[in-house]
Amino acid sequence: IRRPPRSTLFPYTTLFRSEQFHYSEKYLSRLIKKATGKTFNEIIITNKLNEAQELLSNSSLSVEEIAVKVGYLNPAPFYKLFKERYGVTPAHFRKEQQQKNNIPLQ
Prior knowledge:
Strand content: under 5%
Number of helices: 6
Oligomer: single chain
């Protein structure tokens, strides 16, 4: 499975992909889980959060802008998932990265 294009709010769902490959949604979900050990949704979330980390480290976009850019129209779920995954808020992660890389804090 390829990573979704950056800053695209395209519907990456198993339903969309299953129609594209002419598989049933359930069958495609099983194939993905068997091949990767992760669900399609887990893969998408991981890709979104990885991209968010990159943007937090290397851009001056606000956290809300980054949430939208990686596919969250509402930043609340983004904040929650980010904190669950990394143990810090997106803003705290950015601050840590700036300090680690000796980038002046904004």
